[in-house]
Amino acid sequence: MEQPALSTNIPSAWYADFFTCLPNEFWRRAATPEWTAADVAFVETRLGLAAGSRILDVPCDSGRHSLALAARGYQVTGVDLSAEAIGNARRAAASRQAAVTFEHRDMRDLAPLGVFDAAVCLGNSFCYLDPAGTRAFVAALGRAVRPGGGLVIDVGGAAESVLPGFTSAPRTMHTGDITVESTTEYDVATSRLLSHYRFAQGSRSLDATAVHHVWTSGQLGALLAEAGFVDLSRHGDPDGTPFVVGSGRLFLVARRE
Q1: What is the count of structural domains for the chain?
Q2: Are 210 and 195 in contact (CB under 8 A)?
């Protein structure tokens, strides 16, 4: 795949048009049930959830974590801006007779949904928004979680994860009849990871660019503290491994003050 020139003109709201049928179907196939089960077990273990707790899953994508949490007896509300993903999540809930509420809305617009016992942001979606948007999202989470309630955030774009051994080498992935070619660039001027994708399925293809704004672990901790979260812990894997430089993921766990 020919790599596009590094561009500063990618819309800040790139995600509004990115998550359509082909990209969403690829990720639905790529995310295994084992991944989802490990994430949900981590949430339960770290937050010590009471039976029937109200949980906010934002953004929820096609609902895999929402449905898994609901299957364990929690009252779940999933929020996502992708109409295609929300439609798929609602159909999946109906087919399983799962009592999950799915809301098609911006992840910063949480006030109408009320207050929750816990919130989760899983699946590496936390860094999609620009810095101002991320601050607004974290502030919204602070208002959405009750005092004493819990929070788990999964970050794939932390600086300590992205920068060690960074490579822009092309990559090809397959899930059934969907093939994805990707190249990645790092924009040092804005601390952004630009991932250029070509999705192909039969005669259909789609070229799209995803953006992850890169934050250090310390900066993320400060953001959460500003929003009223305390008792922060950092993990590099759902099994509870401590987060270190080079960890592929950063799980942040905190409590609303």
Answers
A1: 2
A2: yes
